[in-house]
Amino acid sequence: MRYDIVIVGGGPAGLSCAITIGSAVEHDMEFAKGKKVLVIDNGNSDLKSAKLNNVPGVKRGTLGKELLEDIKNQAKEYSCVEILEDTVQKILKNNGFVVQTASGNTFEADVVVLASGFKAFDIEGIELDVVENPLSPKPGRVMIKTSKSYEALDKNANVVENLYVAGLLAGFSSMFSCAAGSGVQVGINILNKYAGKPIVIHDVP
Ligand SMILES: Cc1cc2nc3c(=O)[nH]c(=O)nc-3n(C[C@H](O)[C@H](O)[C@H](O)COP(=O)(O)OP(=O)(O)OC[C@H]3O[C@@H](n4cnc5c(N)ncnc54)[C@H](O)[C@@H]3O)c2cc1C
User: Fold this and answer.
1) Residue 155 in domain
2) Which of 47, 70, 88 to mutate to test ligand 1, by most ligand atoms within 8 A of the CB atom?
3) pTM of structure
4) Rounded CA gap, 31 and 142, in Å?
5) What is the pLDDT of residues 178-201, one digit of tens each?
6) Which domain holds residue 123?
7) Residue 94 has pLDDT above 90, yes or no
8) Cβ pair 170, 146 in contact under 8 A
9) How many domains does the chain have?
């Protein structure tokens, strides 16, 4: 099956990216018309273990797993966004990308967003520059080096065009708003590229 954008990881970063793209599609923006987004997630977000007292706008004491469910439901409200429970094992690049999962699914996409957290990066197929995450308080956490637009760099420091990295895997601090904000920025960067100019998506009452 073919999607315009496949997002690997349905934590705060991946879902925020999906919501951003979904909102552009819902706004009927010319460059976003008909775009389809697939989020593939294997259900192990760090947010599930959290109790949140310091997330701006979120009621103190909210459980991370409840917030995650709310964000997931918000993403699902956009008809262009699908969420699949599965594990991505391999990503191949030719003209676009081919994404293979543990359940034997294969998806084609023009754009892939890696938002699979900082615990490890063991997806095969593309040799990326995976390094120790300098902003993690715990050792052994990883990040993928990126360009300024958050497109991944390979081991020779070449930009892998249309392969974006978001959240902790892009080297952001492990705080909800940093991860979610990074996902939004990557979503906007993808939309900017489609539009050929800087855009924002704002609603008014
Ligand atoms: C105990 C604890 C308490 C915390 N408390 C707070 C707090 O009080 N305030 C605060 O702001 N932040 C807190 N955080 C941090 C916050 O939860 C993280 O910063 C945030 O979840 C990171 O988002 P992410 O999307 O980058 O990664 P994650 O949330 O880790 O999401 C990554 C997702 O990718 C999926 N995935 C990984 N590999 C694959 C694959 N190959 N195929 C498919 N899916 C894959 C995972 O299952 C996961 O769902 C806490 C974290 C922990 C662990």
Assistant:
1) yes
2) 47
3) 0.98
4) 34
5) 999 999 999 999 999 999 999 999
6) 2-195
7) no
8) yes
9) 1
